[in-house]
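Minutes, project check-in
Item: structure for the 140-residue chain
Input as provided by the requester:
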Amino acid sequence: MTMTFIDVAAVTDVPPGGMLHVEPAGREILLANVGGRFHAVADRCSHERAVLSAGRLDGTVVTCPAHGSRFDVTTGKNLSGPVMADLPGLKRLSPRARAMAREKAGEMAKAPVADLTVYPVRVEGGRVLIGVRPLSGPDR
């Protein structure tokens, strides 16, 4: 199968340390600029499908904004699962509801978190292109 590369952004659209959500060929992809090198991975957390590009990028690691799962954007590897200790809004719940939420959170934290699909990236003429056939991951 031939690889098709799709133009998704200008190099200047994603400064070093930045991320951008793009949708080439209908796939939700996180485009990250790590020290001037571009990387592309699936933009949905494999834990509960939150949009990763809404999270935080620290070096090569993106942290999911929903539950804190961490992934390496250069490899797609899951580095750690969800962090469920301090869920937003827990303090507003009754003690019983808080206990139930913590119990459910503990169960969710044990769920396996898969690696992200990784997509090939090229830079040509100041434009970033992403290959729509993945290099690795569940969409292979």
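Outcome recorded: Residues 95-109 form the longest helix (15 residues).
No further action items on this chain.
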